[in-house]
Amino acid sequence: MTTFAPDSLALNRKLPLWYQVSQSLRASILGRSPEAPLRLPTEDALALHYGVSVLTMRQALKELETEGLISRHRRRGTFIEPSAQRGAPVRLLGSVDAIVAQQSGMRTELLEHGPTPIPPELAEFYPELTEVTAYRRLRSDEETGEPTNHAWNYVHPDIAAAIDPSDLLRWPMTKVLRDAVGVRISRITDTVEARLADPETARLLDIPLLSPILHYTGVSYDEDGRAVDVARIHYRGDRFSFTVTLEA
Prior knowledge:
This protein is an alpha+beta fold.
């Protein structure tokens, strides 16, 4: 039987070897092509491939087994779980057009919208206001119907007055602000951090409580430097990754 071929890895001796190997193999598994075989090479072959001991390799494989990415069977070998797959990545992009493209392509449900007090942690973006207009949406994969992210947008009330809520069912907020409302967005500041799903997020995204999620905050500014929208989005951690490319 043909076995799966993982990517190579340049090891950093300052980090635990088992962790580096597990993350490299994890990325190879999640990024594999649909035609790739499911059977992994033996522990000895993998240890030789990565240049580590069999004990280190065994620890790395145990980590992936705990995650549910592989299953190990005595005498039969180690196999990738068919359900192990990566969703669309969340990427750091350089233009508003690129950000709009990143946010498109999902089925959107508008859960609620209306005036709301500014959350204390967002007050710095709207220092002159006590209230904004909030929009809450749930996005799902168009093919499978699986929920992928839960989004809140806190929009400046002057801007929100011109928003047609039905536009948010087919367009991302950034596109609505720019193309439907006519806001001249000058920049968007993004922050991404790892969190654990609270009860409401876990329910909406159909994941276990305290599952890992990616928490995204995006602040859009107009040409006058005024914040016009603060987006807070919870992405399922098992369907998204965050990639940054830096030119050296």
